Amino acid sequence: MKAAPFAYVRPTRLEDAVNELAGSDGGGKVLAGGQSLVPVLAMRLARPEKLVDITTVEGLDQLRSTGDSLEVAAMVRQRRVEHDRATDSVPLLRMALPWVGHRELRSRGTVCGSLAHADPAAEIPAVAACLNARITLTSPRGTRQVPAREFFTGAMTTALGSEDILTAIRFPVATDGEGFGFAEIARRHGDFALAGVAVRVAVSGERVREATLTAFGVSDRPVTRDVSTELASAVSASGQDGVRLAARLPEPLADIAQGMVDTDGDAHGSRDYRRRLFVTLSGRELAKAHDRALRGINGDNP
Description:
35% of the residues lie in helices and 25% in strands.
């Protein structure tokens, strides 16, 4: 199939892009990397009246550290973020990016585009939710920031209004005493995840201060849960032995899975199968993140 007819504009100023989108009366779509939008157009699952191409808008290609955060603007490609040393300050993002599609797609796809598309099995939205990154939306009424955990409202549904352009995201940088973990299971590398987890653990000395677990591919959006109590209890019972810790976590995580994994399942995996994947991945990555937090080490995810 081919896309239905549409108008096309390519502004060079953000103000003009915002006005073009607002002038479409809800019939416009923003085009950035196009790795999600173009296939949807080709299958006529979306029929926008106008495409607002932001690839030449000034200022939307910035990737910069701002002290306590890493700011990724709307036109920054995933491949660039994957290989830029600035991303070392956000270890969880660096762990997740190699799992996003294939490198050819990451060379065109944008970080912000993945957020706006909001696929429930996507890696970048899960990282944003786990870290509760702040998403910047720009409209004719000005600029506002939305916490990532409030941004995703359903399957491919977000807090984006019909006049909003997602112009940037700010990921908080890692601090001392934090450790991270990321893993997913898919039929083949680059396929949609059957289940995946993003994990952040913060410690004070040897005490668990905070533990956050975000699951993706198991519901209609990234699902985040504070598991500080469960992790602290398992650490208390197992000491600092990572193997024993990972062995103790499945029991409490099995109860958590009942609420977090609510997909109906499909031909590739039932709800119960995805719950088992979630429990296994969560236990392993929580143990790894805890160990990394204690040692102050966050290398590439093995």
